[in-house]
Amino acid sequence: LVSRQHHPARSVIRVGGVPIGPDTLSVIAGPCAVETPEQTLEAVRMAKRAGASLLRGGAFKPRTSPYSYQGLGERGLKILAEVRQETGLPVVTEVIDPGSVDMVASYADMLQIGARNMQNFALLQAVGRAGRPVLLKRGFSATIEEWLSAAEYIAQRGNLDIVLCERGIRTFETATRNTLDISAVPVVQRLSHLPVIVDPSHSGGRRDLVVPLTRAAIAAGADGVIIDIHPEPKTALCDGDQALVESDVREIADAVTILSPLM
Ligand code: PEP
């Protein structure tokens, strides 16, 4: 269902009316985690200045350590819905278990499946039935074939509104948090009709790499990027090292305006 063999034209997915796919470069941006209404609103205002047409923010955080910040849960979703109201940007947020899919879908415009859950098949089937577009991140140890099979689980339940997100894979390299597999962009676009975006924040894990990796993603033909922003990264409860600050926002906006006509 997700293969280009039976569907040669590349798909455009609409999220709250905003298109993601060929001929557009979508910027999804906002805080890694929702912490407070003020922090979320400020991060999303910065996201708008960076050129974002959709907002991101995690209310349920699937952390490697159980002692790390786990998110505000439904309270965080309410904050996201208020920030959508305030800014007009549709909400992309993660869901981490099949039992809460309908509740998260009642607040979200797009459901995100994180890298750690890429092969949580019960969750994939649940979002396949939820009636919302899905952002499917690549598992950090998943091959492209495994990633596309995960998308097939969602599609099989009747939901073809899927956007794939390359977010870096685990390699022997330790200088970066993950290794951005930039070749996945054209490879997957050839194999599948689904849009492919890149997460330059979680791939590098470092703020100084986000702008260069964004440029690389655009040059490789990605259909969009998803970026972490925080008004005060030093106080961030999650992934502050990779969050962009105000001075980076202009560079992202420039990269998008200057490079996207080359696509
Ligand atoms: C995220 O985008 O908030 C996230 C946790 O990303 P990943 O699943 O790619 O690690």
Automatic annotation (TrEMBL):
Keywords assigned by UniProt, alphabetized: Transferase
The EC number(s) this enzyme carries: 2.5.1.54
Highest taxon of the lineage: Bacteria
Residue span, DAHP synthetase I/KDSA domain: 17-253
Keyword Transferase: yes
Record-level Gene Ontology MF annotations: 3-deoxy-7-phosphoheptulonate synthase activity
Record keyword Transferase present: yes
Full protein name: 3-deoxy-7-phosphoheptulonate synthase
Organism encoding this protein: Streptomyces amakusaensis
Stretch of the intact protein here: 71 to 333 of 351
